[in-house]
Amino acid sequence: MHFVTFIAKNLVRRRVRSALTVLGLAVAVGGVVALLGISHNASRSVEASFERRRIDLIVQQAGKSSGLNSDFRDWFVEAARALPGVEAVAEGVVNLTDITNARGNSDQVMIMGWRPDNFAYEELQVLHGRKLVPGERQRVMLGSTLARNLGKGVGDTVVFGRDEPDNPGNRFEVVGVVSSIDVFEKGAAIMSIDDARAITSLRVTGFSVRVRKPTPESTAEVEEVRARIEALRDPDDPSVRLTAQPPDSFVTSLSQLKLVRAIAWLVSAVGLMIGVIGMLNTMVMSVVERTQEIGILRAVGWSPGRVVRMILGEAVLLGLAASVLGTLGAVAATYLLTFFPQVNGFIEGGIAPRVIAQGLGLTVLIGLIGGAYPALRAARLLPTEALRHD
Protein backbone atom coordinates (compact mmCIF):
# COMPACT_ATOMS: atom_id res chain seq x y z
CA MET A 1 0.00 0.00 0.00
CA HIS A 2 1.32 3.45 -0.89
CA PHE A 3 2.41 5.50 2.15
CA VAL A 4 0.14 8.48 1.36
CA THR A 5 -2.83 6.15 0.78
CA PHE A 6 -2.14 4.51 4.13
CA ILE A 7 -2.17 7.92 5.85
CA ALA A 8 -5.42 8.92 4.14
CA LYS A 9 -7.14 5.69 5.21
CA ASN A 10 -6.13 6.34 8.81
CA LEU A 11 -8.04 9.63 8.65
CA VAL A 12 -11.05 8.19 6.84
CA ARG A 13 -11.47 5.53 9.51
CA ARG A 14 -12.28 8.31 11.98
CA ARG A 15 -14.60 10.34 9.77
CA VAL A 16 -16.40 12.39 12.43
CA ARG A 17 -13.26 13.43 14.27
CA SER A 18 -11.41 14.24 11.06
CA ALA A 19 -14.38 16.22 9.70
CA LEU A 20 -14.75 18.27 12.89
CA THR A 21 -11.02 19.01 12.97
CA VAL A 22 -11.06 20.11 9.33
CA LEU A 23 -14.14 22.26 9.89
CA GLY A 24 -12.66 24.01 12.94
CA LEU A 25 -9.40 24.72 11.14
CA ALA A 26 -11.26 25.88 8.02
CA VAL A 27 -13.14 28.54 10.00
CA ALA A 28 -9.90 29.91 11.46
CA VAL A 29 -8.01 29.81 8.15
CA GLY A 30 -10.97 31.20 6.21
CA GLY A 31 -11.15 34.26 8.47
CA VAL A 32 -7.44 34.94 8.02
CA VAL A 33 -7.54 34.46 4.25
CA ALA A 34 -10.63 36.68 3.87
CA LEU A 35 -9.10 39.58 5.80
CA LEU A 36 -5.74 39.28 4.05
CA GLY A 37 -7.54 39.03 0.72
CA ILE A 38 -9.57 42.20 1.33
CA SER A 39 -6.43 44.12 2.31
CA HIS A 40 -4.47 42.82 -0.69
CA ASN A 41 -7.25 43.57 -3.17
CA ALA A 42 -7.65 47.14 -1.96
CA SER A 43 -3.90 47.77 -2.02
CA ARG A 44 -3.48 46.28 -5.47
CA SER A 45 -6.45 48.25 -6.80
CA VAL A 46 -4.97 51.58 -5.68
CA GLU A 47 -1.47 50.68 -6.90
CA ALA A 48 -2.78 49.65 -10.31
CA SER A 49 -4.63 52.96 -10.70
CA PHE A 50 -1.43 54.88 -9.92
CA GLU A 51 0.54 52.79 -12.43
CA ARG A 52 -1.96 53.34 -15.23
CA ARG A 53 -2.04 57.08 -14.55
CA ARG A 54 1.78 57.27 -14.49
CA ILE A 55 1.82 58.87 -11.07
CA ASP A 56 5.27 59.02 -9.45
CA LEU A 57 4.54 60.79 -6.15
CA ILE A 58 1.55 61.31 -3.87
CA VAL A 59 1.81 64.41 -1.70
CA GLN A 60 -0.09 65.12 1.52
CA GLN A 61 0.35 67.14 4.67
CA ALA A 62 3.00 65.68 6.94
CA GLY A 63 2.19 64.65 10.48
CA LYS A 64 -1.44 63.70 9.78
CA SER A 65 -2.87 60.30 10.67
CA SER A 66 -4.38 59.95 7.20
CA GLY A 67 -4.88 61.85 3.97
CA LEU A 68 -8.41 62.64 5.03
CA ASN A 69 -6.98 64.94 7.72
CA SER A 70 -4.63 66.73 5.32
CA ASP A 71 -5.37 70.37 4.48
CA PHE A 72 -3.11 73.02 2.94
CA ARG A 73 -3.18 76.01 0.60
CA ASP A 74 -3.05 76.06 -3.21
CA TRP A 75 0.32 77.79 -2.86
CA PHE A 76 1.99 74.39 -2.46
CA VAL A 77 0.34 73.08 -5.63
CA GLU A 78 1.54 76.01 -7.74
CA ALA A 79 5.00 75.89 -6.19
CA ALA A 80 5.29 72.15 -6.93
CA ARG A 81 4.06 72.68 -10.49
CA ALA A 82 6.92 75.16 -11.06
CA LEU A 83 9.68 72.87 -9.74
CA PRO A 84 12.34 71.56 -12.18
CA GLY A 85 11.61 68.02 -13.28
CA VAL A 86 7.88 68.17 -12.63
CA GLU A 87 5.83 67.24 -15.68
CA ALA A 88 2.35 67.73 -14.24
CA VAL A 89 0.48 68.11 -10.96
CA ALA A 90 -3.13 67.20 -10.15
CA GLU A 91 -4.60 68.32 -6.84
CA GLY A 92 -7.82 67.31 -5.19
CA VAL A 93 -10.02 67.31 -2.12
CA VAL A 94 -10.86 63.86 -0.72
CA ASN A 95 -12.92 63.34 2.40
CA LEU A 96 -15.87 61.50 3.93
CA THR A 97 -19.28 63.11 4.23
CA ASP A 98 -22.89 62.11 4.83
CA ILE A 99 -25.27 61.52 1.97
CA THR A 100 -29.03 61.04 2.24
CA ASN A 101 -30.09 57.70 0.76
CA ALA A 102 -33.38 56.72 -0.85
CA ARG A 103 -34.85 55.74 2.56
CA GLY A 104 -34.14 59.17 4.02
CA ASN A 105 -31.28 57.88 6.17
CA SER A 106 -27.70 59.11 6.10
CA ASP A 107 -24.78 57.02 4.83
CA GLN A 108 -21.16 58.06 4.94
CA VAL A 109 -19.50 58.16 1.52
CA MET A 110 -16.23 59.35 0.08
CA ILE A 111 -16.28 62.45 -2.08
CA MET A 112 -13.48 63.37 -4.49
CA GLY A 113 -13.15 66.92 -5.75
CA TRP A 114 -11.03 67.22 -8.91
CA ARG A 115 -10.14 69.83 -11.48
CA PRO A 116 -11.06 68.99 -15.09
CA ASP A 117 -7.39 68.27 -15.93
CA ASN A 118 -6.95 65.71 -13.15
CA PHE A 119 -5.10 62.52 -14.24
CA ALA A 120 -7.90 60.35 -12.93
CA TYR A 121 -10.34 61.51 -15.62
CA GLU A 122 -8.19 59.73 -18.21
CA GLU A 123 -8.96 56.29 -16.81
CA LEU A 124 -12.60 56.69 -15.82
CA GLN A 125 -15.02 54.62 -17.87
CA VAL A 126 -18.41 56.26 -18.38
CA LEU A 127 -21.18 53.67 -17.98
CA HIS A 128 -24.09 56.09 -18.22
CA GLY A 129 -24.33 59.80 -18.94
CA ARG A 130 -21.14 61.85 -19.27
CA LYS A 131 -18.17 63.25 -17.42
CA LEU A 132 -18.11 66.61 -15.70
CA VAL A 133 -17.22 69.61 -17.85
CA PRO A 134 -15.11 72.60 -16.71
CA GLY A 135 -17.04 75.21 -14.74
CA GLU A 136 -19.95 72.95 -13.74
CA ARG A 137 -21.24 73.34 -10.19
CA GLN A 138 -23.58 71.15 -8.18
CA ARG A 139 -23.11 68.30 -10.64
CA VAL A 140 -21.70 64.94 -9.62
CA MET A 141 -20.54 61.64 -11.09
CA LEU A 142 -21.26 58.54 -9.03
CA GLY A 143 -19.00 55.53 -8.93
CA SER A 144 -20.78 52.40 -10.14
CA THR A 145 -20.88 50.84 -6.66
CA LEU A 146 -22.21 54.00 -5.01
CA ALA A 147 -24.85 54.47 -7.73
CA ARG A 148 -26.06 50.92 -7.12
CA ASN A 149 -26.12 51.40 -3.35
CA LEU A 150 -28.10 54.63 -3.60
CA GLY A 151 -30.35 53.46 -6.41
CA LYS A 152 -29.47 56.62 -8.32
CA GLY A 153 -28.85 57.24 -12.00
CA VAL A 154 -28.31 60.04 -14.51
CA GLY A 155 -30.73 62.90 -13.90
CA ASP A 156 -31.42 62.01 -10.27
CA THR A 157 -30.58 64.25 -7.34
CA VAL A 158 -28.33 63.35 -4.42
CA VAL A 159 -28.15 65.28 -1.17
CA PHE A 160 -24.92 65.69 0.77
CA GLY A 161 -25.60 66.26 4.45
CA ARG A 162 -29.12 66.93 5.66
CA ASP A 163 -31.89 67.43 3.12
CA GLU A 164 -32.95 70.99 3.99
CA PRO A 165 -35.31 72.79 1.56
CA ASP A 166 -33.80 76.17 2.45
CA ASN A 167 -30.27 74.96 1.68
CA PRO A 168 -30.16 74.03 -2.03
CA GLY A 169 -26.36 74.18 -2.06
CA ASN A 170 -26.05 70.56 -0.95
CA ARG A 171 -28.31 69.15 -3.71
CA PHE A 172 -26.42 67.76 -6.70
CA GLU A 173 -27.62 66.46 -10.05
CA VAL A 174 -26.12 63.15 -11.22
CA VAL A 175 -24.63 63.64 -14.71
CA GLY A 176 -22.78 60.35 -15.01
CA VAL A 177 -22.17 56.90 -13.58
CA VAL A 178 -18.55 55.79 -13.95
CA SER A 179 -16.35 52.79 -13.31
CA SER A 180 -12.69 52.74 -12.35
CA ILE A 181 -9.89 50.31 -11.68
CA ASP A 182 -9.68 51.88 -8.20
CA VAL A 183 -12.17 50.24 -5.80
CA PHE A 184 -12.44 53.45 -3.76
CA GLU A 185 -13.42 55.50 -6.82
CA LYS A 186 -16.17 53.00 -7.60
CA GLY A 187 -17.68 53.77 -4.22
CA ALA A 188 -17.16 57.55 -4.34
CA ALA A 189 -18.95 60.67 -5.53
CA ILE A 190 -16.77 62.71 -7.92
CA MET A 191 -17.40 66.45 -8.25
CA SER A 192 -15.59 69.70 -9.00
CA ILE A 193 -12.92 70.73 -6.53
CA ASP A 194 -14.85 73.92 -5.74
CA ASP A 195 -17.94 71.94 -4.76
CA ALA A 196 -15.86 69.59 -2.62
CA ARG A 197 -14.31 72.60 -0.87
CA ALA A 198 -17.74 74.02 -0.15
CA ILE A 199 -18.95 70.73 1.37
CA THR A 200 -15.84 69.88 3.41
CA SER A 201 -14.40 73.36 4.18
CA LEU A 202 -11.00 71.95 3.13
CA ARG A 203 -8.62 73.62 0.67
CA VAL A 204 -6.40 70.86 -0.76
CA THR A 205 -5.98 67.44 0.84
CA GLY A 206 -3.30 66.19 -1.54
CA PHE A 207 -1.90 66.15 -5.04
CA SER A 208 -0.32 63.68 -7.46
CA VAL A 209 2.86 64.36 -9.40
CA ARG A 210 4.22 63.11 -12.70
CA VAL A 211 7.99 63.45 -12.99
CA ARG A 212 9.99 63.85 -16.19
CA LYS A 213 12.15 60.73 -16.46
CA PRO A 214 14.41 59.34 -19.21
CA THR A 215 12.94 55.86 -18.63
CA PRO A 216 9.84 54.66 -16.75
CA GLU A 217 12.07 52.76 -14.30
CA SER A 218 14.30 55.72 -13.42
CA THR A 219 14.12 56.75 -9.76
CA ALA A 220 16.82 59.43 -9.37
CA GLU A 221 14.62 62.15 -10.88
CA VAL A 222 11.70 61.12 -8.66
CA GLU A 223 13.87 61.33 -5.56
CA GLU A 224 15.09 64.81 -6.52
CA VAL A 225 11.54 66.10 -7.00
CA ARG A 226 10.43 64.43 -3.76
CA ALA A 227 13.17 66.26 -1.81
CA ARG A 228 12.26 69.59 -3.42
CA ILE A 229 8.57 69.19 -2.62
CA GLU A 230 9.23 68.31 1.01
CA ALA A 231 11.50 71.38 1.30
CA LEU A 232 8.68 73.75 0.26
CA ARG A 233 7.51 76.24 2.91
CA ASP A 234 4.35 78.30 2.67
CA PRO A 235 5.33 81.95 3.38
CA ASP A 236 1.92 82.54 5.00
CA ASP A 237 2.09 79.41 7.16
CA PRO A 238 5.69 78.11 7.55
CA SER A 239 4.57 75.45 10.05
CA VAL A 240 2.90 73.34 7.33
CA ARG A 241 5.08 70.51 6.00
CA LEU A 242 4.41 68.14 3.13
CA THR A 243 5.34 64.51 2.69
CA ALA A 244 5.80 63.03 -0.80
CA GLN A 245 5.71 59.26 -1.25
CA PRO A 246 6.03 56.86 -4.18
CA PRO A 247 2.78 54.95 -4.82
CA ASP A 248 3.91 51.71 -3.15
CA SER A 249 4.99 53.51 0.04
CA PHE A 250 1.80 55.56 0.04
CA VAL A 251 -0.41 52.47 -0.19
CA THR A 252 1.55 50.76 2.58
CA SER A 253 1.11 53.78 4.84
CA LEU A 254 -2.66 54.14 4.40
CA SER A 255 -4.07 53.96 7.92
CA GLN A 256 -7.24 52.16 6.80
CA LEU A 257 -5.28 49.38 5.09
CA LYS A 258 -2.77 49.21 7.94
CA LEU A 259 -5.66 48.61 10.33
CA VAL A 260 -7.05 45.81 8.15
CA ARG A 261 -3.61 44.20 7.84
CA ALA A 262 -3.04 44.44 11.61
CA ILE A 263 -6.41 42.83 12.30
CA ALA A 264 -5.66 40.12 9.72
CA TRP A 265 -2.37 39.18 11.34
CA LEU A 266 -3.90 39.31 14.82
CA VAL A 267 -6.59 36.91 13.62
CA SER A 268 -3.79 34.83 12.09
CA ALA A 269 -2.04 34.54 15.44
CA VAL A 270 -5.27 33.60 17.21
CA GLY A 271 -6.17 31.17 14.42
CA LEU A 272 -2.72 29.61 14.64
CA MET A 273 -3.07 29.00 18.38
CA ILE A 274 -6.59 27.62 18.06
CA GLY A 275 -5.55 25.43 15.14
CA VAL A 276 -2.49 24.07 16.91
CA ILE A 277 -4.50 23.21 20.04
CA GLY A 278 -7.22 21.53 17.97
CA MET A 279 -4.68 19.61 15.91
CA LEU A 280 -2.73 18.59 19.03
CA ASN A 281 -5.88 17.25 20.67
CA THR A 282 -6.90 15.29 17.57
CA MET A 283 -3.49 13.73 16.97
CA VAL A 284 -2.85 12.85 20.64
CA MET A 285 -6.17 11.01 20.79
CA SER A 286 -5.32 9.28 17.53
CA VAL A 287 -1.96 8.08 18.85
CA VAL A 288 -3.47 6.87 22.15
CA GLU A 289 -6.21 4.91 20.38
CA ARG A 290 -3.73 3.34 17.93
CA THR A 291 -1.01 2.42 20.42
CA GLN A 292 -1.21 -1.31 19.60
CA GLU A 293 -1.35 -0.62 15.87
CA ILE A 294 1.79 1.52 16.14
CA GLY A 295 3.46 -1.24 18.16
CA ILE A 296 2.70 -3.74 15.38
CA LEU A 297 4.15 -1.38 12.77
CA ARG A 298 7.32 -1.03 14.87
CA ALA A 299 7.47 -4.82 15.31
CA VAL A 300 7.33 -5.43 11.53
CA GLY A 301 10.21 -3.07 10.90
CA TRP A 302 8.93 0.49 10.85
CA SER A 303 11.58 2.92 12.07
CA PRO A 304 10.79 5.76 14.52
CA GLY A 305 11.33 8.21 11.68
CA ARG A 306 8.70 6.50 9.54
CA VAL A 307 6.21 6.63 12.40
CA VAL A 308 6.92 10.37 12.83
CA ARG A 309 6.33 10.93 9.11
CA MET A 310 3.03 9.03 9.32
CA ILE A 311 1.65 11.15 12.18
CA LEU A 312 2.91 14.42 10.71
CA GLY A 313 1.54 13.39 7.32
CA GLU A 314 -1.91 12.87 8.82
CA ALA A 315 -1.75 16.27 10.53
CA VAL A 316 -0.61 18.06 7.37
CA LEU A 317 -3.26 16.29 5.28
CA LEU A 318 -5.94 17.50 7.71
CA GLY A 319 -4.48 21.01 7.42
CA LEU A 320 -4.52 20.91 3.62
CA ALA A 321 -8.15 19.83 3.59
CA ALA A 322 -8.96 22.70 5.97
CA SER A 323 -7.05 25.09 3.73
CA VAL A 324 -9.14 24.15 0.68
CA LEU A 325 -12.41 24.44 2.59
CA GLY A 326 -11.40 27.67 4.34
CA THR A 327 -10.22 29.31 1.10
CA LEU A 328 -13.49 28.46 -0.65
CA GLY A 329 -15.36 29.95 2.28
CA ALA A 330 -13.18 33.09 2.23
CA VAL A 331 -13.79 33.62 -1.50
CA ALA A 332 -17.53 33.23 -0.99
CA ALA A 333 -17.45 35.60 2.00
CA THR A 334 -15.65 38.38 0.11
CA TYR A 335 -18.13 38.21 -2.75
CA LEU A 336 -21.01 38.13 -0.27
CA LEU A 337 -19.70 41.28 1.44
CA THR A 338 -19.86 43.18 -1.85
CA PHE A 339 -23.66 43.02 -1.59
CA PHE A 340 -23.64 45.04 1.66
CA PRO A 341 -23.76 48.81 0.99
CA GLN A 342 -21.94 49.56 4.26
CA VAL A 343 -18.67 48.06 2.98
CA ASN A 344 -18.90 47.31 -0.73
CA GLY A 345 -17.45 50.68 -1.69
CA PHE A 346 -14.19 49.69 -0.03
CA ILE A 347 -13.67 46.02 -0.93
CA GLU A 348 -13.50 43.76 -3.96
CA GLY A 349 -14.53 40.13 -4.11
CA GLY A 350 -12.10 37.29 -4.71
CA ILE A 351 -8.80 36.14 -3.22
CA ALA A 352 -5.42 36.64 -4.90
CA PRO A 353 -3.19 33.54 -5.44
CA ARG A 354 -0.57 35.10 -3.17
CA VAL A 355 -3.03 35.22 -0.28
CA ILE A 356 -4.19 31.66 -0.97
CA ALA A 357 -0.55 30.57 -0.74
CA GLN A 358 -0.24 32.33 2.63
CA GLY A 359 -3.31 30.49 3.91
CA LEU A 360 -1.89 27.21 2.65
CA GLY A 361 1.40 27.89 4.41
CA LEU A 362 -0.46 28.68 7.64
CA THR A 363 -2.34 25.37 7.64
CA VAL A 364 0.81 23.38 6.88
CA LEU A 365 2.50 25.14 9.80
CA ILE A 366 -0.46 24.29 12.04
CA GLY A 367 -0.22 20.65 10.98
CA LEU A 368 3.51 20.45 11.66
CA ILE A 369 3.36 22.18 15.05
CA GLY A 370 0.19 20.44 16.21
CA GLY A 371 1.42 17.03 15.09
CA ALA A 372 4.99 17.31 16.40
CA TYR A 373 4.39 16.16 19.99
CA PRO A 374 2.04 13.27 19.12
CA ALA A 375 4.50 12.14 16.42
CA LEU A 376 7.44 12.11 18.83
CA ARG A 377 5.34 10.31 21.44
CA ALA A 378 4.39 7.63 18.93
CA ALA A 379 8.00 7.23 17.78
CA ARG A 380 9.18 6.57 21.36
CA LEU A 381 6.79 3.66 21.86
CA LEU A 382 8.61 0.34 22.20
CA PRO A 383 6.93 -2.53 20.33
CA THR A 384 6.66 -4.69 23.49
CA GLU A 385 5.06 -1.90 25.55
CA ALA A 386 2.71 -0.89 22.75
CA LEU A 387 1.47 -4.46 22.19
CA ARG A 388 0.68 -4.83 25.94
CA HIS A 389 -1.30 -1.57 25.92
CA ASP A 390 -5.00 -1.96 26.62
Oligomeric category: single chain
Give the topology string: H per helix, E per strand.
HHEHEEEEHEEHEHEHEHHHHHH
On the 0 to 100 scale, the average pLDDT is: 83
Q: What value does the Rg take, in angstroms?
A: 29 Å
Largest sheet: number of strands, sense, barrel closure: 6 strands, mixed, barrel
Count of distinct structural domains: 2
- Topology, number of strands: 10
Helix content: 40-55%
What is the straight-line distance between the termini?
27 Å
Number of helices: 13
Q: Could you say which overall geometry the principal axes of the C-alpha atoms support?
A: elongated
What share of the residues does DSSP label as strand, in percent?
A: 15-25%
Spatial strand order of the main sheet: 2-3-8-5-7-6
Structural class: alpha+beta
Low-pLDDT residue spans: none
Summarize the structure.
With 390 residues, this protein is an alpha+beta fold. Helices cover 53% and strands 17% of the residues. It has 2 domains: 176 residues, no CATH class; 189 residues, no CATH class.
Q: What's the structural blueprint in terms of helices and strands?
A:
Layout: H1 3-12, H2 15-52, E1 57-61, H3 74-81, E2 86-100, E3 106-114, E4 125-129, E5 139-143, H4 144-150, E6 157-160, E7 171-179, H5 183-186, E8 188-192, H6 193-200, E9 206-211, H7 220-230, E10 242-245, H8 247-253, H9 255-289, H10 291-299, H11 304-337, H12 353-380, H13 383-388
Parallel strand pairs: 3-8, 5-7
Antiparallel strand pairs: 1-9, 1-10, 2-3, 2-6, 2-9, 4-7, 5-8, 6-7
